[in-house]
Design goal:
InterPro entries: YciB (IPR006008). The protein has helices spanning 8-29, 43-66, 71-90, 94-97, 99-116, 121-126, 134-161, 164-185, 187-193, and strands at residues 33-36, 39-42. The chain has 200 residues and is mostly helical. It has two domains: 1-87, no CATH class; 98-200, no CATH class. Strands 1-2 form a two-stranded antiparallel ribbon. A hairpin with a 2-residue loop joins β1 and β2. It is globular, with a radius of gyration of 19 Å. The protein starts with 7 loop residues before the first helix and ends in a 7-residue tail after the last helix. The model has no long low-confidence stretch (mean pLDDT 89).
Length: 200
Amino acid sequence: MDKPQVNPFVKSALEYGPILAFFAAYLWLKDRVFVIGGTEYDGFILVTAGFIPLFLLAMGALWWLTGHLSRMQVVTAVLIVIFGGLSVWLNDERFFKIKPTLIYLLFGTALLFGLLRGQSYLRVVMEGLMPLEEQGWMILTRRVTGLFFGLAALNEFVWRTMSTEAWVWFKTFGFTAAVFLFFIAQAGLFKRYGLESDED
C-alpha cells in the first residue's frame, strides 16, 4: 500500500519545529531561574522539560499523517525521553547534551557493523530517496559512518569546552549545516553511481 502523501511544508514543520522551538525558548529563558517544589531550575532545564512532550507530539502527528516513522526517528525519540528526562529529574543539563553523541555513535556503530558484514544498512533507510549502484551504496555508507563518528566527537568537544549557549547554537544549526554540506559534497558520487528510474 502506498504511503499517504503529506505536504512537504507540514512534514518539515513537524520534524524541525520542535528543535526551533527549543532554540527560541532557550534564548528567551536562558538567564532566568525558576523555583519549583523548592528546587531551583535554570531556563535550560525548563526548556528541556517542555521539549520532550513537544517532540513526542510532533512525532505522533507525523506517524498519524504518514503511517510511518523511520528507525532513526524512533531511536532519537527514545533517547530524548531517557536523557532529557534524566536532565530534568536530576537537574543536570549534561545528560541532554550528551544525547547527540550517543545518537551519532549508535547509528555510526550500526552502519559499521553492516559494513563489516559486507552490507549497507544505509541503503535500507535511504534507497527510496536516491537509488544507487551497490558500489555507490558501500562508498556512501563508509562516508556516512565517518560523518556520524565525527559529529559525535565534535559534539563532545563543543559541550565540554564551550558555554551552554554556544552548544545550543551549534546543536540547532551546526549539525544541520554539517549534514547538508556533507551530502552536497557527495554530488560526484551520486552522479557516478546513480541509477535512472524506469520512468526516465
